[in-house]
Amino acid sequence: MPAEYYTNILYPLQNQVLAIFRKTPFYLTGGTALSRGYYQHRYSDDLDLFVNGNQEFDGLVNSVLPKLRAVFHPVEIVTREESFCRLFVAQEQLKIEIINDVASHIGLIVEHPELGRLDSRENILANKITVFIDRALPKDIVVIYYLLKDGLSLKQALTDRQV
User: Fold this and answer.
1) Is residue 128 part of a domain?
2) C-alpha separations of 162 from 99, 145, 155 in Å
3) Residue 92, domain CATH
4) Is residue 78 part of a domain?
5) Could you identify which of 2, 39, 123, 148 might form a hypothetical disulfide with 106, taking C-beta atoms 3.0 to 4.6 angstroms apart as the criterion?
């Protein structure tokens, strides 16, 4: 996709979605958190929004869905499980994954002026290593590379992912 698609269409759409999630305990993580919040090293298409070991996960998802439907059409839920919800919003088919992750979290969640609650680089690295072991996609290698280049420790991330 050309850069104009991201700057003029997709990122404003992502910002609208993230504004809805600002009043919730969810935080942005994964490739979009890194690419938009930390490094601006690539364009990113989807949103990964996490909470950690939240007993109210189902209620939180239920509270967000009507707000999304009030702004976007269509909102298509493709997967809904106890700790996971995948949906697509708007004609642009923005993919959103809402996840109730394990209770432990590494590092501090920060408040980003545009993106809202943003995951720590340390937690993203620990999660990406876990994901990489399962699926080994090139984009995961790039994320791991940037985080290690930025001074994070692979040894510490491997230790952290076992917590």
Assistant:
1) no
2) 19, 20, 11
3) 3.10.450.620
4) yes
5) 123
Q: Which two tokens stand for residue 65?
A: 């869905």
Token pair in block for residue 146: 């940037």
**Domains held by the chain: number:** 1
Cα separation of 30 and 111, whole Å?
16
Domain carrying residue 53 = 3-120
Q: Is residue 145 part of a domain?
A: no
* Residue 80 counted as domain residue: yes
The residue type found at 80 is R
- DSSP assignment of the chain equals --HHHIIIIIHHHHHHHHHHHTTSS-EEEHHHIIIIIII--S----EEEEEES-TTHHHHHHHHHHHHHHH-S-EEEEEEETTEEEEEETTTTEEEEEEEE-S---S--EEETTTEEE--HHHHHHHHHHHHHHH--HHHHHHHHHHHHTT--HHHHHHHTT-
pLDDT band at 163 (very low <50, low <70, confident <90, very high): low
* Each residue's pLDDT tens digit, 4-61: 999 999 999 999 999 999 999 999 999 999 999 999 989 999 999 999 999 999 999 9
Q: Which amino acid is at 49?
A: L
Report residue 26 as tokens.
């969810």
